[in-house]
């Protein structure tokens, strides 16, 4: 049997998946990502510990193979921004600095002010933020200059695993995009940014399109992982984009809705969007793992987290009931929310638990329940949360359509949120669009594996890869009556959003 192997290096979990050429998951193994909290917003990963867990997952996978089985390629998906410095002997000079590590905050504002936010967006497609690799390098330049002087390469998380498997320094365009050192217009490292930052671009690995063979598994890596020496290793890419490839979101008119703790919207575009950058707001654009495409990325910072927060803080009775019935508490909460009418008896929720989405320019915007009366119960609050999340996603999608000048015809949804049937029904009605849920929920892993398959010549192109592997598990069609009712609710949501933001600004001024 021939297989494609995918790796997904996520914030919470590391995953390895073995897929048939038809996209069926033959095996999936996972382990915790070994993050170390250093306090004060700092977090790192130990490179050897990370490699040990990745190689351990690969040993688990290869131990399941029969003698006649063959792994044709390896593709890797990864979080963006996280990275480390290596010396000229290939040894780590630093731990892997997590993408969310706060050290970049120290230099981000000054850098953006001196270089210019519009200028950085024009080159990189990125909105100002402290998370990007550039900010980590600038922090190291100030606080650990002796380490930076010894460095030969900066490698992001995917790049480091490629190096451990092959001994080669390589990245792909989509991960390079997340460094804030990459010119997405030329698909090359930016001399202009590097010169302004006082950094040597020799630090950066060669960048390739996703699905490019950049090396083969070496003998030492084979000994560590059980993967046969000589297996091609290919560039995968940023995890959101690998997931987008697996569901066909690399052509205009489709959108990926990745529903997890946070919710990400990914839309594809055939060329670099010529954006008016005061309109872009919190969206980012960049290079897709499909070489002919670009993407627009935005999202809700606390999507599933809103539901989890309410469960944790206010749902003790439902927790006891769930335990007594032997079911998930989320099943109980959704069951109760179905009993609340459309509009939750006038209760509305703004889901800015971790701040506003990309279409909202008010940085102080906070989460809020609005319209609470004495007759509202937990079931109304849960329904209001789901309706608020659906309206927020529609608001974000509407902004994306305006920016790209595209009309979206369908949504493909992946992630844990797709298991919440009520949420999906509400969202389909608010959007007035069908929402497809793919049969393979490990879409990021599959996307990485497909990029490996493209590099190994298993598929002619991304279209053939999609046609061979994509299957629909379920489609949520918008209910016409719900569409009518939610059109009124969405109109009200758009009106209250700036008003709620004003209230948040008043609160923030007192803190």
Any overview of this molecule?
It is a single chain. The protein has a seven-stranded mixed beta sheet with strand order 18-19-17-16-22-23-24, sandwiched between helices. A six-stranded mixed beta sheet has the order 3-2-1-6-15-14. The longest helix has 30 residues, at 480-509. A hairpin with a 3-residue loop joins strand 16 and strand 17 (263-269). 41% of the residues lie in helices and 23% in strands. Helix 12 (304-314) runs antiparallel to helix 15 (378-404), helix 15 crosses helix 16 (421-431) and helix 15 crosses helix 19 (480-509). By secondary structure, the protein is α+β, with helices and mostly antiparallel strands. The radius of gyration is 23 Å and the shape is globular. The protein has two domains: 2-242, 2-Layer Sandwich (Nucleotidyltransferase, domain 5); 304-398 and 480-509, ATPase, nucleotide binding domain (Nucleotidyltransferase, domain 5, 2-Layer Sandwich).
């Amino acid at each position: 049997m021939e297989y494609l192997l995918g790796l997904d290096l996520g914030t919470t979990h590391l995953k390895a998946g073995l897929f048939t050429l038809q996209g069926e998951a033959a095996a999936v193994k996972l382990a915790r990502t070994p993050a170390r909290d250093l306090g004060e917003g700092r977090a790192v990963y130990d490179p050897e510990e990370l490699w040990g867990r990745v190689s351990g997952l690969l040993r688990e996978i290869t131990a399941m193979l029969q003698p006649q089985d063959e792994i044709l390629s390896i593709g890797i998906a990864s979080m963006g921004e996280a990275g480390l410095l290596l010396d000229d002997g290939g040894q780590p000079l630093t731990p892997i600095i997590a993408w969310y590590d706060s050290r970049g905050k120290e230099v981000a504002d000054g850098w953006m002010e001196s270089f210019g936010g519009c200028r950085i967006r024009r080159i990189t497609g990125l909105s100002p933020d402290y998370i990007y690799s550039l900010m980590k390098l600038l922090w190291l330049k100030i606080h650990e200059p002796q380490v930076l002087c010894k460095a030969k390469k900066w490698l992001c998380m995917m790049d480091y695993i490629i190096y451990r498997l092959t001994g080669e320094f390589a990245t792909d365009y989509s991960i390079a995009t997340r460094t804030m050192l990459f010119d997405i217009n030329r698909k090359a490292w930016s001399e202009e940014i590097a010169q302004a930052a006082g950094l040597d671009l020799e630090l950066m690995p060669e960048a390739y399109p996703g699905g490019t063979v950049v090396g083969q598994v070496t003998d030492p890596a084979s000994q560590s992982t059980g993967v046969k020496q000589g297996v091609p290793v290919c560039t995968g890419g940023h995890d959101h984009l690998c997931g987008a490839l697996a569901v066909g979101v690399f052509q205009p008119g489709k959108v990926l809705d990745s529903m997890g703790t946070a919710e990400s919207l990914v839309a594809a575009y055939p060329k670099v969007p010529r954006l008016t950058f005061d309109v872009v707001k919190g969206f980012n654009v960049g290079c897709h793992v499909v070489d002919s495409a670009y993407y627009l990325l935005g999202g809700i910072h606390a999507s599933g987290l809103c539901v989890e927060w309410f469960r944790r803080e206010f749902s003790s009775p439902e927790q006891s009931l769930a335990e007594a019935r032997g079911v998930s508490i989320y099943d109980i909460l959704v069951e109760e929310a179905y009993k609340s009418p459309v509009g939750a008896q006038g209760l509305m929720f703004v889901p800015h638990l971790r701040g506003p989405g990309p279409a909202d320019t008010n940085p102080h915007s906070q989460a809020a329940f609005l319209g609470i009366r004495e007759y509202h119960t937990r079931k109304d609050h849960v329904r209001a949360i789901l309706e608020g999340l659906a309206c927020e996603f529609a608001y974000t999608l509407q902004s994306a359509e305006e920016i790209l000048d595209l009309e979206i015809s369908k949504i493909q949804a992946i992630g844990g949120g797709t298991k919440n049937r009520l949420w999906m029904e509400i969202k389909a009605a608010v959007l007035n669009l069908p929402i497809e849920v793919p049969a393979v929920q490990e879409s990021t892993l599959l996307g990485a594996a497909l990029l490996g398959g493209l590099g190994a010549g298993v598929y002619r192109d991304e279209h053939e890869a999609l046609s061979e592997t994509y299957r629909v598990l379920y489609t949520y069609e918008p209910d016409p009556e719900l569409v009518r009712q939610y059109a009124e609710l969405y109109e009200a949501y758009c009106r209250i959003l700036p008003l709620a933001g004003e209230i948040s600004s008043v609160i923030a001024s007192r803190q």
